[in-house]
Amino acid sequence: MRRVGSAGWLLGLCVLLLGGCATGFSMRSLPAETPAADNAAAVQKQQQFMADQAAAAAAAKSAAATEPAGIGPPLTAADVPSMQTYDPWERMNRFTYRFDARFDEALFLPAADTYRRLPSPVRAGVHHFFANLVEPVSVVNYLVQLRPVPGVRSLGRFVINSTLGIGGLFDVATHLHIPSAPTGFGATLARWGVNPGPYLVLPLLGPSTLREGGGFVADYGIAYWIDILHLYRGLVSWVLPPIDAVDVRANTSFRYYSTDSPFEYDTVRFLYVRKTLIEDDRIRLWQRGARDPQAPAGR
Amino acid sequence: MLAAVLALTPLSAAAADEPLVGLADPAALRATVYGTPPQDVPPLPARVPLAEINIALPWAAKPRPAVFWFASRLRAWFAEQPGPAPLAIIISGTGSDGNTEKLSLLRAVLYQAGYHVLTVPSPTFPGFIAAASTTGVAGDLQQDSHDMYLTVQAILAHLPRRVHITDIDIIGYSLGGANAAVVKSIDASEHRLRLPIHRAIMINPPVNMFASINRLDKLFALSIGTGDVGIERLYQRIYLRLANLYRASDQIRLEDTDLLAAAAAVLRTDTDFAAAISLTFRLALVNVFFAGDLYAGTGVVTDPHHPPQPGDPTEAIERRLRDLPFSAYFDQVFVPYYLAHRPGASRDTLIAASNLNIIGAALRDDGDYYAQTNADDLILDQTELNWLRSTLQGRVAVYAHGGHLGNLGDRQQVADMLAMLAGSWKGQTQ
Fold it and tell me: Each residue of B56-65: pLDDT tens digit?
């Protein structure tokens, strides 16, 4: 009886929130902007990019003198995919996109805004903790992809961060120059030649493809199977995913209908699928013996 | 983000493998796309508090088409000073919302200078058209600015009582600059509910909107061509460069938000830059055209009796609209609508009404109007630039370079803007 009451209360709250709480005026405080730090980061990014460009040009020159570039012939116009996107479930996808937008506006974004008000070290700790939980999933996927080097790296990151990093709260491995490079079952499928398949908008998670959506489910299955510290079973398994989701949302700048354009669905679909196809091309290239994009430079 | 990443591409990467467009200066094209390099902006504040305002406006044209279900309330952004302070209102450029990177930069420097800052979308932004426009048919300078004026009044009336405003100035960039000046002129003619707006600054405004837009359409035709073929060719070019760049480098990671920026970073030739500029404008026009066609019921790309619903595919409509220039919108949607709703109007009077000289007398006689523009701004010709100079009589700063908004936020532009707002600008020294 009590459970029904709670569910009813929750349902009522959701309906109210998803209904938009239609009042005439609202003023929602956002996390403060940090222009000085943002601009300093932009300057640094520019300098880094210039240095990378110079290094890449020098490397290309020396590689050309000693060995083939190893990336195969450049793509040609014939390799460019059509501008149209395969979206046989468009009506359902549009419905889900609309639902996601409402959910995001009513629940997800306010939660993320509140979360962003926590002290930065706390947020960093939460973020690192969840990122660390993903490492074992990456290890399994790298193994299935037959890519031992990044697999060992992920395993090393997990061991270092779980111990020296106090249960993953601190990303010590990155400080030791072992950068994060997570992978998932979607990438594993791509590595074995599975195409992205139809465009798919997932409830709550947003734009995806059939392959990536399936990959997400499989990754959760792998995590459930490994079940580190029993975090994926019992009560705690109901508490952690929402916190993880809010952390991810707080670190994602995308906002539904920030364009206020009735064509936003088409634009997002176009960009998402093109991005996936370009990444797939890189993975296919690696299959043919070119440099592993995840391998450390020079290896 | 876009400007920052664009600024990363060395100019020496520009290859002369395609003919020059010939309609605009190459440096102006690049400045327009790159924007102000981050190292050229003045010192910025460490922290700017920000609030998002959502407001329902009762005069918004009804019924709102179902496909605009998400735009029932207008979004604006407000940065509040802790104590009494003057207010700077900033209007965004063509088709843009009230929280662009350019607005964010202006907000930072104005907040640092002690202003409350309210940033609002352009009257041509789809969210404004659906939530704040009385007509739904954007593009009329006077009407759009009037809608903007009502909107600003409504927002200010709803601000919490603790917000103490000592003075009000208004700024706008690109088309928003023209809107800002017209909003001030409307306010000046208002007796009962005057805000009052003190100073107005137009940053890179158009003078003759119709001519400026036609210039951008010409740039589109020259750099992209017509029909889907032109867009397809541009898409192939950008996709190929992006994919090959990603193949060759481990440095490029394709984050969702970086895709457009990365695409812009592979622009090389004048034709590429011109295409990026004119396509950006055309995509803004697509929204204006679509909304106007729905609200006016002109049936150019939508069936007025069976308007599209939220779940309906819209790609075919967008593809068709991408190929239509502003003149098609003007003749097939804008003119029919205004001929039916404005007694005595004709095509010629509507064109004339899209000119800044509708407030020429105010610009000439009132010393509180200012402008900042560039000698190589793509949207102005020499006659229009001269008109600005002669009309504003020394209250216009014309910088030698910068293209269209390519120097917005740089030290000189910001210093001049703040001096103009303070009424202490002594004219151009360079």
Answer: 999 999 899 9
Amino acid at A225: W
The class (CATH top level) of B45-208+368-422 is alpha beta
- Tell me the pLDDT tens digit for each residue of B265-305: 778 888 888 988 998 899 999 999 999 999 999 999 999 99
DSSP state at residue B78: E
CA distance A9 to chain B (A): 26
Q: Which of A20, A266, A278 sits opposite B246 (nearest CB)?
A: A278
Complex-level ipTM: 0.87
Is residue B285 within 8 angstroms of chain A, CB to CB? no
Using an 8 Å CB-CB cutoff, list chain B residues near A289. none
What is the per-residue pLDDT for B254?
59
Nearest to A186 by CA among A161, A154, A210, A156: A210
| Residue B394, token pair as written in the block | 């020394």
Q: Specify whether the CB–CB gap between B25 and B396 falls below 8 A.
A: no
CA A282 to chain B, closest CA, distance in angstroms equals 6
CA angle A149, A150, A151 (to 5 degrees): 90
Sequence-ordered strand ranges (E) for B129-217: 165-173, 200-203
Q: What is the torsion angle, in degrees rounded to the nearest 10, for the CA atoms of residue A113, residue A116, residue A117 and residue A120?
A: 180
User: How long, in residues, is chain A?
Assistant: 299
What's the alpha-carbon Rg for chain B, to the nearest Å?
21
The structure's pTM equals: 0.87
d(CA B308, CA A96): 18
Pairing mode of beta strands B116-120, B200-203: unpaired
Name the residue with higher pLDDT: B55 or B260. Answer: B55
